[in-house]
């Protein structure tokens, strides 16, 4: 079976930033199984499109999702990135509650 995902790498990175805003590019690359270069290019796309902001504190850069940005899909334009991330977080929470505890 082919290895693919319903979420693009851009969507996966938005979710990672939302879940852990203090992640370094190296950490993002490790979690998403991408190269640091790929993460930097995706971050550039997301910043240029207004989906992510960045703020430098000393030597660290902190990234934040802009939750009120509309989704780019014509079918979903009435919904925001924040709504999508909230839906995914609720689904993950629901799954975690259903998993048997070790």
Defining traits:
Arc Repressor Mutant, subunit A, globular, 2 strands, single chain, mainly alpha, two-stranded antiparallel ribbon, 102 residues
Task: Describe this structure as you would to a colleague.
The protein is mainly α and 102 residues long. The chain has one domain: Arc Repressor Mutant, subunit A (Orthogonal Bundle). The protein has 4 helices and 2 strands, in the order αααββα. It has helices at residues 9-19, 25-32, 36-48, 81-98, and strands spanning 52-57, 60-65. Strand 1 (52-57) and strand 2 form a beta hairpin. Helix 1 packs across helix 3 (36-48) and helix 2 packs across helix 3. The longest helix is centred in the C-terminal third of the chain and has 18 residues, at 81-98.
- Strands of the widest sheet, in order across it, are 1-2
Low-pLDDT runs: none
- The quaternary structure here is single chain
- String of helices and strands: HHHEEH
Distance between the termini: 30 Å
The percent range for helix content is 40-55%
The dominant shape is globular
- Provide the β-strand percentage band: 5-15%
């Amino acid at each position: 079976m082919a290895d693919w995902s319903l979420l693009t790498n851009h969507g996966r990175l938005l979710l990672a930033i939302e879940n852990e805003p203090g992640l370094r590019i190296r950490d993002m690359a490790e979690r998403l199984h991408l190269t640091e270069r790929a993460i930097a290019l995706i971050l550039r796309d997301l910043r240029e499109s207004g989906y992510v902001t960045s703020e430098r504190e000393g030597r660290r850069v902190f990234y934040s999702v802009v939750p009120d940005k509309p989704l780019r899909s014509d079918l979903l334009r009435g919904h925001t990135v924040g709504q999508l991330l909230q839906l995914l977080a609720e689904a993950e929470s629901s799954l975690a509650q259903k998993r048997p505890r070790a």
